[in-house]
């Protein structure tokens, strides 16, 4: 799978956790496992690819918080985590991603409060659309 760039496995009724075999794909740009029945925590190894532009894990049952290793993916543009059961605070590394232009995390227990606090002190904007938190980081690429 050395040359694989896009992995789109949404809407497949997969059950369990993210398989470790797909976490080691080094040059992956798009990683989509949305609308399956995946659970557990989001593994830090997911963020080992330097080339990830899109991560879509929406519509699953992931729990826990977003790992701080998200900061490794400096070119990440879209992070979609809506409709999960995530909780806890957002890692500061998320807000240091200069390329991030879209972040959706609706349905997460604590995150809306974190976003209000952090974005009151910045030029960024957020809104809630159909229960999904949509964040637009102004000035990003």
CATH level-4 homologous superfamily: Ribonuclease Inhibitor
What's the gyration radius in Å?
14 Å
How many H/I helices? 1
Inertia-based shape: globular
Helical fraction equals under 10%
Description:
- It is a single chain.
- By secondary structure, the protein is mostly beta strands.
- The chain has a single domain (6-136), classed as Alpha-Beta Horseshoe (Leucine-rich repeat, LRR (right-handed beta-alpha superhelix)), CATH 3.80.10.10.
- The protein has one helix spanning 111-119; strands spanning 6-8, 15-16, 30-32, 37-41, 54-56, 61-64, 78-80, 85-86, 102-104, 125-129, 132-136.
- The longest helix is centred in the C-terminal third of the chain and has 9 residues, at 111-119.
- Residues 108-124, 128-132 and 137-141 have low confidence and may be disordered.
Keywords:
141 residues; mainly beta; Leucine-rich repeat, LRR (right-handed beta-alpha superhelix); 7-stranded mixed beta sheet; 4-stranded parallel beta sheet; 1 helix; 11 strands; globular; disordered C terminus
Please outline the helices and strands:
Layout: E1 6-8, E2 15-16, E3 30-32, E4 37-41, E5 54-56, E6 61-64, E7 78-80, E8 85-86, E9 102-104, H1 111-119, E10 125-129, E11 132-136
Parallel strand pairs: 1-3, 2-4, 3-5, 4-6, 5-7, 6-8, 7-9
Antiparallel strand pairs: 9-11, 10-11
């Amino acid at each position: 799978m050395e040359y694989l760039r896009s992995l789109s496995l949404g809407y497949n009724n997969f059950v369990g956790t993210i398989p470790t075999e797909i976490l080691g794909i080094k040059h992956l740009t798009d990683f989509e496992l949305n609308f399956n029945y995946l659970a557990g925590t989001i593994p830090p190894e997911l963020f080992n690819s330097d080339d990830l532009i899109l991560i879509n894990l929406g519509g699953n049952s992931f729990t826990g918080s977003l790992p701080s290793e998200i900061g490794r993916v400096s070119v990440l543009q879209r992070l979609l985590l809506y409709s999960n059961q995530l909780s806890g605070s957002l890692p500061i590394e998320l807000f240091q991603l200069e390329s991030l232009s879209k972040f959706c995390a609706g349905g997460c227990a604590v995150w809306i409060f974190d976003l209000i606090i952090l974005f009151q002190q910045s030029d960024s904007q957020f809104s809630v659309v159909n229960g999904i938190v949509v964040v637009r980081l102004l000035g990003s690429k």
